């Protein structure tokens, strides 16, 4: 990858070069980036616990943006977006819809990763006309097995990481096998490819509010997912410790129009470890 901005017409095609823009709606100024061709249904990426714009794997973003318009954003109170972070997934979904509508978009595809996949499920249930297709990766349904334990797992792995001078995502997202460790190091290196105009880190209060929201999601009564008629691609690694992989099988079983891909020797960050496989699968699904 070159240091110069990759251009196809006027479209930015490299995530590390995508300018950070802002749009204000509902009293909140949302920070976002977009890239790829300005045609077809846009794909809105909704990200994970503690993540800001710079936490998306550029191989996944660039891969999808090679053929689709991709939009990433900081939800309310996160990174460079203003306001205070809600303590429920439902409020986060409302904010995401406010952002999408502020961009003037009537139909979108949604890719929700981890917490973002929880938000995406609420969006498609409350605003079904807005969503055409849905990708749910590394995530689970309300009341899903082990989701209420995300706070404990996150805290334990953060301590493990600090004690070994590593990034917590090395433990939280990847297996401890040789392949998993290597994939983690490669992923973390890719997150540093953008060297200018990086996003603000998440605040401790926003992180705390997100943990509370996920905990509440894990304690909720299971939602009826049978009304979600949109095609759904569910993806995960076979050894997800944060949102146990059993939840991905549960989503596939309960969603009427779902298909599942599970990557071997991979954890929560399976789509990043197997980005070479995930990107073509996602594009084929989105363009079907």
Automatic annotation (TrEMBL):
Pfam families: Abhydrolase_1. Keywords: Hydrolase. Residues 42-272 form the AB hydrolase-1 domain. The keyword Hydrolase applies. It comes from the Bacteria. GO terms for molecular function: hydrolase activity. This is Alpha/beta fold hydrolase.
